[in-house]
Specification:
This is TetR/AcrR family transcriptional regulator. This protein is mainly alpha-helical. Helix content is about 75%, strand content about 0%. It has one domain: Tetracycline Repressor, domain 2 (Orthogonal Bundle), CATH 1.10.357. The longest helix is centred in the last third of the chain and has 25 residues. It starts with a helix and ends with a helix.
Length: about 210
Amino acid sequence: MFTKFLNLEMEKQDRIINAAIKEFAQKGYDKASTNEIVKEAEISKGLLFHYFGNKKKMYLFLFDHCTDMIGDEFFKKVDLTERDFFVRIRQAVMIKMDLLNKYPDIFKFIEETYFEESPEVKTELEKKIKQLNDINIGKVYEGIDISKFRDDMDIEKILKIITWTFEKISEEELLQAKLSLTHQIDYQKASLKAEEYFEILIKLFYK
């Protein structure tokens, strides 16, 4: 669908993507201006729509592009041969912190998509986010050593409880960020909170 854009030289692609990330992250979908994007990217508005069709398609392309890029880097770094569940999850948290420091603008854009309320894109975004979370959780949980967990409990239920716990922590951090003026998630605070729950869950569910 975006062949014309993807056939551009990388420097021009990056210029357009960076301009769009900046505009959408700062203003949200409805208030973001394609005029500002083309001005920052140093291209014509006609070319922008030639590459993407319309604002909505560009926005959803940008979401896919950013999440794919972060996901690719994450799974290159995470050691999926590590079979201890909690060691692997702790590792995942540290990698996410490292990627946040490396790509702050991209994370800012992705964070804003979780707060997006525009009816033009909200439904499709929610579907994409759910699919993404389901796929990533499946990959991160794959191949874990279930022998470390207690024998008197259903492993499937244990993993659901752990998943729900960290989903709830994420929801709370997203809500706090949404209510703040900057919409910024305090990842350092979130990882410290996660560590507290790690300790409790290990005592509860490991032998």
